[in-house]
Amino acid sequence: MSFPLVGNKRIKDSLLALISQNRLPHAIIIEGDLGTGKRTLARYIAKASVCDEEVRPCGLCRNCHLADIGSHPDIETLAPEEKKVSISKDQIDFLRTIAYHSAHTAKRRVFIIEQANTLNPVLQNKLLKVLEEPPSDVVFIFITPSAEALLETVVSRCLVLSLFTPTPEEATDYLVKAKGIEPSEAKALLAEEKNNIGKALQRLESKKESIGRAVAHDFLDAVERGSALDAMLSSVPLEGNRSETLKFAEELAEILMGKIKKSQNLPETAREYIRMYDALSELTPTLTTNINLSLFFTALSAKLSAVKNR
Ligand SMILES: [Zn+2]
Asked: Could you tell me if 100 and 184 lie in one domain?
């Protein structure tokens, strides 16, 4: 099972060594900025803690499977309840009680405490009692933007893992390898999401799901092949679907913009894409009126093909 963090090589190496030598500490703090993979890492450690195989987490056994779908009875995640800003006293009392119960199916129990920075000092002191005399088979994982938000007495009993935002190169490289996309697409996604890999992945998924976005690629391919008819045909799945047609227009604009940037050293090609972009920009506002969608696609394929066939 591959390690889920991008960059952060030192943490990866030491953590894998601790896991394989069975020396994972009882309490861990994972600190780092938004999007560094704190929760992903916490889930990975939790899975490694409940997996029984030689090389942990194997990713294949029942414990790993239950951990993956968030249903492992020995992995408990605490987070502020809906509309609350912090974890409550009741939740901490609950944790303190069940921490001393033995595990259900795994050898260890894991408690992931999300947004640990929201715990007030009184609640942290309650937890401290458990941390001072930890049950032998329990792992506590605290997630926080910064360990400084926790009491020194708590921090001193934990292994602190500080995650760093991967460099744009590391992040790009990861997306290209993991998702098989072009480096230029990976860079664009990361730029839109401020180098946050989790959000870039989400955006990539939502792009894939949109039929309008998929059609935009087919549509332009047909135009580039010089077939206005194929372009028209490619738009058939969007018949009567105005919201997806808007996404189509948005995606087509993005693709054209990308092509314009790419052809900076080819002025003739760049001019062609600029003309297509202008034609699209001229027609797109009609989508918010009551225009018949097939009229929109007819006009668009004619105008773009005219640019191509000049
Ligand atoms: Zn396993």
From this structure: no
Same domain? 203 vs 227: no
Residue 78's identity, in one-letter code, is: L
Output the pLDDT for position 152.
96
Question: How close is the Cα of 110 to the center of ligand 1, in Å?
Answer: 15
1 domain residue, yes or no = no
CA 49–ligand 1 middle distance (angstroms): 9
Query: What pLDDT is recorded for position 192?
Result: 87
| Count of helices and strands (H, E) across the chain | 14, 5
What does the pLDDT read at residue 160? 96
Q: Residue 145: its pLDDT value, please?
A: 95
Confidence (pLDDT) at 1: 64
User: Does 132 lie in the same domain as 64?
Assistant: yes
Q: Are residues 134 and 182 in the same domain?
A: no
For ligand 1, an ion, list residues with CB under 5 A.
Answer: 51, 53, 57-58, 61, 64
Which amino acid is it at 273? Answer: Y
Q: Which pLDDT belongs to residue 112? A: 97
**Residue ranges making up the domain that contains 98:** 9-165
| Residue 299 and residue 195 share a domain | no
Task: Determine, yes or no, domain membership for 268.
Answer: yes
The answer on 45 and 86 residing in a single domain is yes
Low-confidence ranges of the chain (pLDDT < 50): none
The answer to whether the peptide bond before residue 57 is cis (omega within 30 degrees of 0) is: yes
Please give the distance, rounded to the nearest whole angstrom, from the Cα atom of residue 64 to the centre of ligand 1.
4
Ligand 1 centre to CA of 235 (Å) is 46
Task: Please give the pLDDT value at position 216.
Answer: 95
Classify the phi-psi angles of 214: left when phi > 0, otherwise alpha if psi is within -120 to 50, otherwise beta: alpha
pLDDT at residue number 291: 80
| 178 in Cβ contact with 148 (< 8 Å) | no
What is the per-residue pLDDT for 290? 79
Total domains in the chain come to: 3
Report the Cα 102 to chain-centroid distance in Å: 34
Predicted TM-score (pTM) of the model is 0.65
Residues 146 and 70 in one domain: yes
